[in-house]
Amino acid sequence: MSDLPHRRELSADRPLVSIIMSMLNSSATVVAAIHSIQMQSLKNWELIVIDDGSTDSSAECVRAINDPRIRLVTETTCAGLATRLNQAVSLSQGDFIARMDADDICFPDRLAVQVDGLQRNPAIDVLSCTAVVFSDNLELIGTLPIELTHGDIVARPFSGFPFPHPTWCGRAEWFRNNPYDPALMKAEDQDLLLRAFQHSHFSALAEVLVGYRQDAVNLMKRLQGRWAAIHSLLNYVQRSDAPFPALRGIAVQLFKSAMDIIMIALGLNRFVQRHRLKPVAPDVARRWLELQRTLGTHSNN
Fold it and tell me: What gap in Å lies between CA 268 and CA 210, rounded to an integer?
């Protein structure tokens, strides 16, 4: 548990932080994700869950969790992550907004540490953190690459931002002033960063606060993400007076798409998944095991 100070943690009026989550057929994972939020050391939060047209029992799983801080909105059609995140932002009441996927897991101090960082540094719009990658059997695979300072995060904007989307926690007004592009079904975070980085300030924490679920590499999803990134770069080219760096970024995405096809065709899925990841530190592995034990106990209560 964290003993970090908070300028405003408990309030009878509204939550300090709103966690926004979109889910689609997430019945196998959403309960653990929500329990990891309920275990947060910072208690003054609301969770807004948008069911994006699930055909399984996702909504019933969320309803069965008896917590007045959870707000469930069910939709009958699938509109995509970008649309649902914008919808959740519009419903949020907190001073801060944190991203959370329905298949990921938060370490207990995630909200406390990130909100405290934002309160202490009013110039920061969005604060990310380090995340470990785990498989469906909860085995740790590696640590996501990340940069910590704004300058390093935005140093190569046309090659991508090392700023993991599921770890974002930022000021509510920033999310409202910088909506996701609802036309995108993939790479909505990279598109948003590309549109916002010149008038925003980003930062990240070296501390591991999120577990990011990623089992087998899916070639189709990977290519869809790359083509969405190309679409975003093309939009940048059209509105920019200096298009050549973005055109080089498009060439890089095309090259990476070709390499993904070749590597996965050769059966090197695990290599594709792991080659960018860093090793998991021993203390993080220990914390992960403790978190799994606590989640198991919590789920049985």
Answer: 27
- The answer to whether 197 and 157 are in contact (CB under 8 A) is yes
pLDDT value at position 217? 63
**Cβ atoms within 10 A of the Cβ of 177, count?**
12
Residue 20 in 3-state DSSP?
strand
**Residue 287: how many other CB atoms lie within 10 Å:** 17
Identify whether the C-beta of residue 99 lies closer than 8 Å to the C-beta of residue 167: yes
Q: Is residue 172 predicted with pLDDT exceeding 80?
A: yes
- The stretch 139-152 carries a mean pLDDT of 95
**Domain architecture of the chain: domains with CATH:** 17-300 (3.90.550.10)
Measured distance CA(84)–CA(71) in Å, rounded: 14
3-state helix, strand, coil in the chain (%, to 5): 45, 20, 40
The model's pTM is: 0.86
